[in-house]
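pls design
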C-alpha cells in the first residue's frame, strides 16, 4: 500500500463511500494509513475508533467535525509524496 491507494481512499471518502475507503485505509499499516483510517471513522461516524487511529498515527484528534479539513491536509501530503 502507499500514496496512490490512500489517495483513492480519500476520493471514496469524498464521494461518501466510507466502506470502500475503509478497505484501503485498513490495509496500510503506515502512520499515514492510520491517519486515513482515523478520518474514515470520523466520517462514519465512530469517535472512539477515530480517536484510536489518530493516536496510532501520532496525531492530535481534531474533533469529529474536521473531516473535510483533514482530507485536504492528508491529500496535500500524499500528493507531494507522489510528485517527482
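designed seq:
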Amino acid at each position: 500500500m502507499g500514496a496512490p491507494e490512500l489517495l483513492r481512499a480519500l476520493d471514496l471518502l469524498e464521494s461518501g463511500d466510507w466502506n470502500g475507503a475503509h478497505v484501503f485505509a485498513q490495509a496500510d499499516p503506515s502512520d499515514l494509513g492510520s491517519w486515513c483510517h482515523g478520518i474514515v471513522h470520523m466520517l462514519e461516524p465512530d469517535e472512539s475508533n477515530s480517536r484510536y487511529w489518530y493516536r496510532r498515527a501520532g496525531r492530535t484528534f481534531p474533533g469529529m467535525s474536521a473531516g473535510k479539513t483533514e482530507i485536504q491536509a492528508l491529500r496535500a501530503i500524499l500528493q507531494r509524496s507522489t510528485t517527482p
